[in-house]
Amino acid sequence: MQENDRPTLKTIAFMAGLGVTTVSRALKDAPEIGIETRKRVQLIARQVGYRPNRAGVRLRTGKTNVIALVLNTQDEIMGFTSHVIHGVSEALANTQYHLIVTPYSHSKDPLDPVRYIVETSSADGIIFSRTEPDDARVRYLTEHHVPFATHGRTDMGITHPFHDFDNYSFARHMVARLVERKRQRLAILTPPAHLAYYGHMVNGFFDGVRTSGSTGTILPGIDIDTPLETLRLRVEAIMRRSDRPDGIVCGSSASTIATVAGIEAAGLRLGTDVDVASKQSTDILPWFRPELIVVEERFQLAGRKLAQAVLARIAGADPGTLQSIG
């Protein structure tokens, strides 16, 4: 089908025996159009494969009907991207909004893709992750009055929509689980120190350590973004030392697999010599090593919550009512 052969409002109007204005309002679920008429028009639209012309919509309304999901390419490991996209898509399914995914490299300025979307007016709302305590993207979008929602919180005095995982409680609970297994020399493999949830996770870990009477340390020179082979080698070296930890909290599934590989390369047995506790977004970790202690972080839920928040923000909702942790 050629571009000029695409079904239009006139196509649907002809097939339905209605006026173009009536069809347009029916597709938007306008209450002044009878429900049976709306259903008939929407059925015809689906059958002929009608899609609104975004350029025309933008000219008429100033809107793109697009939500942009800005993701770091590092996030693809262990399915973060696919799960978030699935969740966002679920929330947008019955709306006029479409999803575009804008990737960027972790070596680039994370503000660059956000600034490009705003300067080109290519989306009505933006979702992004890997927030920092003082996040330039949050400040920029707030100043430019662009609706957005973040996967993760900030600490900069700006109230904005977000959905976050309770990393403080996760880390504290994992310390308790390790201590239940008689582990006393604990260590944590953290997120990168510039990210907001680094502080949440580290505070939870050390509060748990103090409460339990165990000892705790941050694994030096590595974090969950460290290349996996480098991480494996570094963990192996740590676990060959006489003062090695006997319990480790990991902040991601991929880093957990590399950590376990390093432990086993050092000649130690998981569940016997050392225990590892981790978050997971899929069921792969118990298949990989049943001895692991795991807690689920539901990225699909995060995607749904973030999409719902940014849609509500577009509709004018108070950002303070669009915040969730779970």
UniProtKB/TrEMBL annotation:
Keywords assigned: DNA-binding, Transcription, Transcription regulation
CDD domains reported for this sequence: HTH_LacI (cd01392), PBP1_RafR-like (cd20009)
Cross-referenced SMART domains: HTH_LACI
Molecular function, one GO term: DNA-binding transcription factor activity
Domain HTH lacI-type: 7-61
Superkingdom: Bacteria
Keyword Isomerase: no
PROSITE patterns: HTH_LACI_2
Protein name listed in UniProt: LacI family DNA-binding transcriptional regulator
Species annotation: Phyllobacterium salinisoli
